[in-house]
Amino acid sequence: MKYICLGYYDKGKFDGMTEAERNAIFDTCFEYDDHLRASGHWAGGEALQGPETALTLYWKNGKVATTDGPYAETKEQLGGILVLEARDMNHAVQLIGQHPGMRNGPWEIRPAADLNEMMKASEQRRRRVVAP
Questions:
Q1: Long-range contacts of residues 40-45, Cβ cutoff 8 Å, at least 24 apart
Q2: Span 39-73, pLDDT tens digits
């Protein structure tokens, strides 16, 4: 089963580190990611640019509105996502619990939703609307 793992970090703390300290963090995280790949548990992932590059979209007065920055104004910011292949939630917790990124901020783990049946049903409904 796929699990979406959201990794957070304290931007202020990260910005206060030396380049060598940041490189050491990246090296240990990438090494663990290689381990996840080799063991078949890595299903994808991406790092995110800093929160100052975020643009939040929302619905207001019948149209899309935007705000610069992340949705939540918190000390810890979303740093990236990792898609993990694990047997169950306990296995996902075990795998992420060993990730060196745990030392830099919390992780949120959620099972990926299987929308295949919902998408098929929607497709059937939409075909009926278009059919003469």
A1: 40/85, 41/84, 41/85, 41/86, 41/95, 42/82, 42/83, 42/84, 42/85, 43/2, 43/83, 43/84, 43/85, 44/82, 44/83, 45/5, 45/80, 45/81, 45/82, 45/83
A2: 999 999 999 998 889 888 989 999 999 988 877 77
